[in-house]
Write a structure and sequence with these properties.
heterodimer, A: about 300 residues, mainly alpha, f41 fragment of flagellin, N-terminal domain, two-stranded antiparallel sheet, rod-shaped, B: about 450 residues, four-stranded antiparallel sheet, two-stranded antiparallel ribbon, 10 helices, 12 strands, about 10% strand
């Protein structure tokens, strides 16, 4: 007795074609999307990686946006401080000028007024706001940092506090967002408003001008020293920006290696599937073209 | 009895036998593509000889029976493997839909909502008093709760869809069981009368095959040609000529419980066939995912609320809960809501001043902390999705293997029971020739009889 074979070869052909269809559609899908992983079941661990990568990527985007926001804020603060510095320079020149004992009272009065105006100007600068936030008021930033107060020795009252805000600009890296006015303008080791008030008085009378100028110079130095914080923060932002851009690039490379396709491989998969399909069809077409019945005539 | 009429009757018998054989051949050819058909064979045997003196003469051939060629053990095996395959298929189909909701590979899923929420807090830390940024946080929080609610309600809907299929499938099983019992009864009558029940057995095998693709099936020879069928936990579906219907009844959760005819619950034991797949999705995968979503929603809400209530809002008041969640973990994903609508009530400040961002920073940093079952939200979530993906991947691989096994067994079955055109063509010729030869014998005997009749005429 001979071994009997399955007479229905078409079932194998159909199964082969079905498998081939799956291979083809997978290969085409990979090529058209550029992704090896279309759904979690295609590669569960790569999917987990992708979730992490997307997560980090979203975080990186947010950090980058933070950096942009902060750059605006810190640049505003920094350029405000530049104006303050140049105003103070001007006040110091005026002070030196008022040290001339030959000046007429009228000239003195003019200089005193100019110094007072500089004081007002700096008060305005100290009350600079950015997007509704008074940037030199510490964290009590909902109201102007200073109000004029003739009763006070330095002519102003500080309404803010001495707190600073830290903002995260990269994983684990924080940047100081603000320097309070109490450190910049009304610092105990060099009060700008007190120095200007004293200088205006000294200039008007001609008494104690050198001391007043020295006081202003001390205040100037204090402001200059304190404002470097803004420079430091801006530098940090610059570094963070570079880091974030590199990080983003790294993440997209990681994602690509996790779920992207090898183009050559995918193209050759498609070719393989197509060749296989032709082979199955050719073989299928030959099956049982002839049976014994054809010869029984 | 070596006489002319004896030869004639042998020849007539041969004509009849070969005609029957041709019938069977024709029937084989006609059923070449009938699913479940087993090719039939005519079994001939020699008729009892006739003693004449010390000589024995053959008295021709007789048809013993018409036999269906099949391997019953193989049929049983095919049923079992088919049951496994259809269980995998009915498992995979809803699972594919399920994973589409977690398709993070293409960027749709919970992850983006969770990211957006925490990132909106990071953004708020750059300008904590800014109302539009506060509004962003509320919008992102709404988006997050919505995403949890949707994911949860998708699971619930899916579970209901799976559940709705149960009574339909049970109904099909019961119909099949009663048909099998009827066939058992007819087959046992036939076999008692010595008749051929090949066609009925084919039909019965087809029905059992269908049943195996719906539920666990165990088959036992019930005697008198009957096959008894039982399912999970040995619950009888068909015993001899009697069938036992399965019942369904809503359980405490409102889901269909499958019960044997005596009321024993079989639900937990059914793991094969379409029902097995449906139940695995309904009772294992979906509840597992639901629990994970609940754990995540609850973990995030609890941690965020704890930090939020430690802060101070824009009005200078202590923060309230940002999210409302049910007291238990279960139901958290469905029940999570944003508790506040006024952006000023977001407690971004720690020291109470409007410009302080310390609490916003604390809240945003929660995304990197182990706030969901000892893991960070992203780790917990990516593990969940990865687990789902690998369950599906595994089932897909099993399903591919299984369909190869079934295909292989079907081929094996075909090599035993399938109709071969070559074979049938050969038989056609063989029986035709035999018929022609027998007819020739009849003609020859007719001529001889004529000769005998003419003997007297010529001599007179």
């Amino acid at each position: 007795m001979t071994i009997r074979f399955n007479p229905d070869l078409y079932s194998d052909v159909v199964a082969g074609l079905n498998n081939n269809n799956v291979q083809q559609s997978t290969a085409f899908q990979e090529l058209s999307t550029g992704r090896r992983v279309q759904q979690p079941s295609d590669d569960p661990s790569a999917t987990a990686d992708v979730i992490n990568i997307h997560w980090q990527s979203a975080q990186t985007d947010q950090y980058a946006q933070n950096v942009n926001n902060l750059q605006g804020l810190l640049q505003t603060a920094d350029s405000t401080m530049s104006s303050v510095i140049s105003s103070l320079n001007q006040a110091i020149s005026l002070g030196v000028q008022s040290g001339d004992s030959t000046l007429s009272p009228t000239n003195r009065a003019t200089i005193a007024t100019q110094v007072q105006n500089i004081g007002k100007q700096i008060l305005t600068l100290a009350n600079t706001s950015f997007q509704g936030t008074y940037i030199f008021a510490g964290t009590k930033s909902g109201q102007p940092a200073y109000v004029a107060n003739p009763a006070s020795p330095n002519g102003v009252t500080y309404q803010g506090n001495s707190n600073t805000n830290q903002v995260e600009v990269a994983p684990g890296q924080t940047v100081t967002m603000n320097t309070p006015g109490s450190q910049l303008f009304t610092n105990p080791s060099g009060d700008v408003f007190a120095a200007l008030t004293n200088l205006a008085t000294a200039a008007a009378t001609g008494n104690g001008v050198p001391a007043a100028v020295d006081q202003l110079k001390t205040a100037f130095d204090t402001v200059n020293a304190q404002r470097t914080q803004y420079g430091t923060s801006l530098n940090q932002l610059q570094t963070a920006q570079t880091f974030l851009a590199t990080n983003k690039l790294g993440l997209s490379t990681q994602e690509n290696s996790a779920v992207g396709i090898d183009l050559a491989q995918a193209a050759s998969d498609v070719q393989k599937a197509l060749t296989q399909r032709s082979a199955i069809l050719a073989a299928g077409g030959k099956i049982q073209n002839v049976s014994l019945l054809d010869y029984l005539k | 009895m070596a006489d002319l009429m004896g030869s004639m009757s042998i020849a007539l018998g041969a004509l009849k036998n070969n005609q029957e054989a041709l019938d069977v051949t024709t029937n084989n050819i006609a059923n070449q593509n009938t699913p479940g058909y087993s090719r039939q064979r005519v079994n001939f045997s020699e008729a009892s000889p006739i003693q004449y003196g010390n000589l024995q003469f053959g008295s021709g051939a007789q048809v013993d029976n018409i036999q269906s060629i099949r391997d019953q053990v193989l049929e049983f095996r095919i049923n079992a493997e088919t049951g496994r395959q259809s269980s995998l298929e009915s498992f995979l189909q809803p699972m594919q839909q399920l994973q589409a909701g977690f398709n993070e590979a293409t960027g749709t899923g919970l992850q983006s909502s969770i990211s957006s929420f925490f990132n909106s807090l990071t953004q708020l830390s750059t300008n904590p008093a800014n109302v539009p940024m506060r509004q962003n946080v509320l919008t992102a929080a709404q988006g997050l709760t919505q995403a949890f609610n949707n994911a949860s309600s998708n699971l619930t809907t899916m579970r209901a869809t799976q559940d709705q299929q149960v009574p339909t499938v049970v109904q099909q099983i019961n119909t099949l069981a009663s048909s099998i019992a009827q066939l058992n009864s007819r087959i046992s009558q036939f076999s008692a009368g010595g008749g051929n029940s090949g066609v009925l057995e084919d039909q019965r095998n087809q029905l059992i095959h269908q049943m195996a693709s719906l539920i666990n099936v165990t088959m036992v020879d019930g005697g008198h040609g009957t096959i008894s069928v039982s399912t999970a936990m040995g619950a009888a579906l068909v015993v001899g000529q009697q069938s036992f219907a399965l019942k369904t009844a809503a359980n405490a959760q409102g889901l269909q419980d499958i019960q044997a005819s005596d009321g024993t619950s079989l639900t937990a034991a059914i793991d094969a066939g379409q029902l097995g797949g449906i139940l695995k999705v309904r009772d294992q995968e979906i509840p597992q995912l639901q629990t994970k979503l609940d754990t995540m929603a609850n973990g995030i809400a609890t941690a965020v609320n704890a930090a939020h209530t430690a802060g101070i809002d824009l009005n200078g008041n202590p923060g309230t809960n940002l999210f409302t969640v049910p007291a238990t973990v279960a139901g958290s994903a469905a029940g999570i809501k944003v508790n506040i609508t006024d952006p000023k009530l977001i407690a971004a400040s720690l020291d109470g001043t409007v410009g302080d961002n310390a609490n916003a920073l604390t809240l945003s940093k929660l995304q990197g902390q182990n706030i969901v079952a000892g893991q960070t939200p992203v780790d917990y979530y990516s593990n969940t999705v990865s687990q789902l993906g690998s369950d599906i991947q595994q089932a897909t691989i099993e399903s591919n293997t299984q369909s190869a096994v079934v295909q292989q067994l079907q081929n094996q079955r075909n090599s035993i029971s399938g109709v071969s055109m070559d074979e049938e063509a050969a038989n056609l010729v063989r029986f035709q020739r035999a018929y022609q030869a027998a007819a020739k014998v009849v003609t020859t005997i007719d001529q001889m009889t004529q000769t005998v009749l003419n003997m007297g005429v010529g001599g007179a």
